[in-house]
Amino acid sequence: MEAFANVVNTINGWVWGPWLLVLLFGTHLYLTVRTGFIQKKLGLGIKLSVTKDANGEGDVSQFAALTTALASTIGTGNIIGVGTAVALGGPGAVLWMWLTGVFGIATKYAESLIAVKYRVKNEKGAMLGGAMFALERGLKNKKAGRVLGILFALFAALAAFGIGDMTQSNAVSGLWETTFSIPTWVTGLVLMIFVGAVIIGGLKWISKVCEVMIPFMSVIYVLGCITILVINARYIGPAISVILAAAFNTRAVGGGLAGFGIMAAARFGIARGLFSNESGMGSAPIVASAAKTANPVRQALVSMTGTFWDTVIICLMTGLVIVTFEVAPNGSSNFSNGGTLVHEAFGSIPYIGTIILTFGLFFFAFSTILGWSYYGERGAEYLVGTKIIVPYRVLYTVVVFVGATIPLNLVWNIADTLNGLMILPNIVAVLLLSGVIAAETKKYGNLEHIDDVDTDPVPLLEEVRKSRG
Prior knowledge:
Blueprint: H1 2-15, H2 18-34, H3 42-49, H4 62-73, H5 80-89, H6 92-117, E1 120-121, E2 127-128, H7 131-138, H8 142-180, H9 184-199, H10 202-231, H11 236-247, H12 262-277, H13 284-288, H14 296-327, H15 338-346, H16 353-384, H17 389-403, H18 408-432, H19 434-444, H20 461-467
Antiparallel strand pairs: 1-2
């Protein structure tokens, strides 16, 4: 196991080298400019997310698509992931994570737009989409598009077991063992049973659960964060100063909060930011393509709000909670462990702090597992066809138990590696199709045209398969 862990760590270090950080963050910046700073339409996106689209064609409502996507992003990445980023990259990682969210809004918008524009309809009338279809149908070089589509689908099908499955059950089982002394295998078994009971019903069952669970648990978690920040209000200013200073520290000096350099802060801040909001990964657009929407821009605006809620708000609050707790006199004695950082910070709320964290993480992780089961399943279906759906669901459910019982560092490294591999074909799609994204934004992006119906027919999957030759 140790030899395997070393290999995974080496591969992960290469995948998440400076080149990928520059590519990912650079894409966020480029698309922000290309879309005319689409972040300024965030308010419209929030309004549309709770407005029913009577003219839309699709399988689930825009709000259901958003909450399912949020279910996949609001999870351990917002809690344990932030703690891990601070533990490995220092408090400066909080700023890099936040910036990844602010500019990642444009990338989430762009990837969701092309997912809806190039979606297809299967023989049962269900909508299918994502980077694999955008690459195959959107690129001029059809062979290259098909190859990249296959790679994306393969990475998505595999990544689901890491980011959406093992890391979630692992984080929950570890916290429940620490808090209630419940063996990890017991937590893994309970999660496995719950997950299997829901994903058997496919997207409609998953979206119904997420519509109820995500808004409720998000409010409870945010209230918990606000409570801690009120308790440590006098340390918020010093914490922000530490975060800003550490984010641009050019070399690792000293120890404790100052012992990290800018590369560590950027690497773990951006990596964990991506793990949390998934902007640039191409995952959320898979469910966005199933939404009932009049045109691609309308759903893209709704989808981009997910990154705002996930990272700009919730991850930032978690980061501030951790760092304010660290600079306070009663700060954590175990700065090297991300899970411990979060656990001790929430423990500062008398009586209910650890309960909020423990149950919040359980339900967040549960919903993330559900959302990613759909992403992975769609990737597998693209590669093999509908015959893979049932075996994939069974295997995915079993891996929930496996993830709950193996070392956390190995799980996170596997997830990070697979996330990075998913990014590459998806970034190719949004960059090469940026002209289409800009044109669609110009066509539908104004208030007077936001409800216009896209008259281009959605092709049948069978037609797309025949065109492959």
